[in-house]
């Protein structure tokens, strides 16, 4: 780890934005983080965010927040990228793609040209799967060190939704969302379980008569979550900030945690050369392993369709 006290340094590019500043706020709670560097083209605003965040440091474990430039990312352990335009009401994440791909083509080489060999890039800007692929392509970094925040947030939403249906601690809900972080994402019901009890058995033994109706309700809640929030407050920031901070902690802690981050898929489930979320073992080296589920035939088909959605978007960009 890169700071004197053996704690990690995290750079947040886009740190003056709603997601970047909320992520910095969440990261201040972590005993693994010693320094947070906020980088943003909005110079005055990013200074204000750093000042404001620092004034809470009396109540957190020792951490310093400062502003910096792209070069200040070079010594970081984790570089989180939230920079870019954000989703407007009724706009899909893929609509954002071209605007943000241009920003990335200019910005990423400036971050990676002097980046230390051990750093992990964690991309959050939407469409996150496409922009993680763009980052990997334009940076020449090893794929395991370029991660997208992926469906870690959607997986949390899925668990939250099921935990509320059954009045359970979300920690006892084991269920994953995979594929695109977006409209084509796939909720994996076939292996979902509550405290080790398969979802359908749990539901039917707890008074649920119409399991399909419950599934449809949860699917809609999870898939529509971002749209519902954006309609009310124009952006999402706290849920994503928590999920990105948690992913960063698993990286800094070298935890070998299984998370549905977005990663380069190379043959899993018959899918190739696309970034999307599958359960991955994550540690200080980035993605250690990509895992294949035992999916139902319908889930496999949906996952391949989701990969096609992302691939079509990537192909619309001229990356060669
Ligand atoms: P925002 O507009 O509040 O913040 C974006 C920040 O990026 C701004 O401060 C802007 O000045 C900065 N910026 C733009 N170009 C830059 C550059 N070249 N270098 C440095 N900084 C630059 O937007 P937001 O609400 O924070 O959202 C940020 C991104 O995160 C959006 O793309 C949004 O869709 C995405 N997002 C992703 C998830 C997820 O789960 N992956 C969830 C929510 C939002």
TrEMBL record:
Q: In which pathway does it act?
A: Fermentation; pyruvate fermentation to lactate; (S)-lactate from pyruvate: step 1/1
Q: Name one GO molecular function term.
A: L-malate dehydrogenase (NAD+) activity
Q: Which UniProt keywords apply?
A: NAD, Oxidoreductase, Tricarboxylic acid cycle
* Catalyzed reaction equations: (S)-malate + NAD(+) = oxaloacetate + NADH + H(+); (S)-lactate + NAD(+) = pyruvate + NADH + H(+)
GO cellular component assignments: cytoplasm
Tell me the SUPFAM superfamilies matching this sequence.
Answer: LDH C-terminal domain-like, NAD(P)-binding Rossmann-fold domains
Active-site residues (renumbered)? 181
Concerning PROSITE patterns, the annotation shows: L_LDH
User: Which residue numbers delimit the Lactate/malate dehydrogenase C-terminal domain?
Assistant: 151-316
The keyword NAD appears for this protein: yes
Where NAD(+) is bound, by residue?
A: 14-20, 40, 100, 124-126
List the taxonomic lineage.
Answer: Archaea, Methanobacteriati, Methanobacteriota, Stenosarchaea group, Halobacteria
- Report which superkingdom the organism of origin falls in: Archaea
Name the PANTHER family for this protein: L-2-HYDROXYCARBOXYLATE DEHYDROGENASE (NAD(P)(+)) (PTHR43128), L-LACTATE DEHYDROGENASE (PTHR43128:SF16)
Tell me the NCBIfam families matching this sequence.
L-LDH-NAD, PRK00066.1
Q: What does this protein do?
A: Catalyzes the reversible oxidation of malate to oxaloacetate.
Q: What is this protein called?
A: L-lactate dehydrogenase
User: What family classification does the UniProt entry report for this protein?
Assistant: Belongs to the LDH/MDH superfamily. LDH family.
Q: Does the keyword Oxidoreductase apply?
A: yes
